[in-house]
Design a protein that fits this description.
Elements: H1 2-11, E1 15-21, E2 24-30, H2 33-37, E3 42-46, H3 51-69
Antiparallel strand pairs: 1-2, 2-3
Helix pairs in contact: 1-3
Length: 70
């Protein structure tokens, strides 16, 4: 399921960066690669969430932000 979610996001052309921290996961999703350089990215930190749940939270934030831009 986790691999499928990552493939789904990257097939849209989105970039995803995952790292661990002492409390859980740091996940950054960018709509396009240059967004990471321009600070136009969305991050979520999950302490009690699984990696898949954290990715889904960040994906939802990205989609909500894209809707607000349009």
């Amino acid at each position: 399921m986790l691999e499928q979610k990552i493939k789904e996001l990257t097939s849209k052309g989105w970039s995803i960066k995952i790292s661990s921290n002492p409390l859980g996961w740091d996940v950054v999703i960018a709509v396009s690669p240059w967004d990471l350089r321009n600070d136009n990215y969305y991050a979520s930190y999950g302490s009690s969430k699984s990696l898949l749940e954290t990715i889904e939270v960040v994906e939802k934030l990205v989609l909500e932000s894209l809707e607000k831009k349009n």
